[in-house]
Design a protein that fits this description.
Layout (H helix, E strand, L loop, with lengths): L29 E5 L17 E6 L9 E7 L7 E5 L3
């Protein structure tokens, strides 16, 4: 609901996977990722922010491969909320 430390979708370790199940098929045009800004970080850095990530479209949550919609890099020096257009 906000961008304060601890109110997040945290992943353990350096890799993670997330599946979002929707009620109907969509054709996305972009994705957004938000992380707290450095000014709100207790340590003054945001090394926990995502860096390289890929987005896949799946027909169902059990599908192994999926369709690659894009590979992106979150800019830790940029704005906290960043938008990434679908590349495919």
């Amino acid at each position: 609901p906000d961008i304060y430390p601890g109110n997040c979708w945290a992943f353990r370790g350096s890799q993670g996977y997330l599946v979002v199940r929707l009620s109907m098929k969509i054709y996305p045009t972009a994705f957004t990722v938000e992380h707290i800004p450095k000014t709100l970080s207790p340590t003054g850095n945001i090394t926990s922010a995502p860096k390289n990530f890929s987005v896949y479209g799946l027909d169902d949550e059990y599908q192994e491969g999926g369709t690659l919609l894009g590979q992106y890099v979150y800019d830790q020096g940029g704005e906290p909320l960043q938008m990434f257009p679908v590349m495919v």
